[in-house]
Write a structure and sequence with these properties.
alpha/beta; Rossmann fold; Dihydrodipicolinate Reductase, domain 2; nine-stranded mixed sheet; 12 helices
Length: 368
Amino acid sequence: MEQVRAAVIGFGGMGRQYAEMIRDGRIGGMVLAGVCCRNGQGQELLKKEYPGVLVYRDVDEMVSRQAEYDAAVIVTPHASHVEIGLRMVEAGKHILVDKPAGVCAGEVRRLVDEAKKAGVSFGMIFNTRMNPVFRKAKELVEEGVLGKVGRAVWICNTWFRTPAYHHSAPWRSSWKKECGGLLINQSQHYLDIWQWILGMPDQVFATMDYGKYNEIEVDDNVDIQFFYEKGLHGTFVSSTGENPGVNRLEIWGTKGRLTVEDTSRVILDENEMPTDEFARVNQEVYGVLKHHAREIPVEEGSNGYQMVLENFSKHLREGTPLLADGWEGLKAIMMTNGAYLSSWQERKVSLPADEEMFLAELKKRQGM
């Protein structure tokens, strides 16, 4: 296709940003055909500020008028992502889904499979992958700069939230409507980055606090251990109740340590020789392996959301590979489901986790 006619589903904070980008011509090869907004006030605003853009009252109306657009950008509360995605896929529309892909891995897998059967594209809005520091970190790890990777630790507790946030929308911070808290919401981007750089873990053990910092029923503090058959051991720590926060990813290998600090700097500490080689040749009781640190230059960052939308447009028009497809979204949900199940059952869980068991445990918390 020469031009992608996109319809945005959901006109909240992020949906409005995406709609503005497309409307203002900032996404090459893409035009804003319509916006789906159930809110009457939002509909009136759209009619006033988005002349020529179609306004849909709900997804049913969108399906009944499917000839008017080619692709849907889904930016609704995430418990509805799979349901809406399936409606669009059944209508033969390409989909670009905001994080997370869904709630249960089994449901997301169905969406991935149905999109493939229908011959439509399924992309994820994982804009954090566009951050130059994470792209550089992935490049260095894949080049073998660290040697054999054995440990990774990520502390990312920059998500401080107060009751004002938790009360900002009726679907937030509950098992029934949001289906989780910190892990299913804020942590999705970094769980994606984790597996994007280090690969999918084989097992997970998680401890979580529920309503530790605010009067909510869902998780607001998480400590996760990831285990790999190849020997890598990872620790992921996050919270929405600690301030000041820090965002620091450290990866150790036989050749040194890689640090991504505050999503803006990449620092490489290089050993003078690999640790396993030094262990063979060193004859001193307290032998010290020297290392040297240097900051790795990275390119200047651009708007990650815009880059994802432009990639989706190019993918549909020119066949450019997606930056993150539905399968990548499924991986993050598999990690999330496994971590929740581990916390609830207080045991180490193999990935992928038992999907029926996860769903049964979630329904208990939803009172179903």
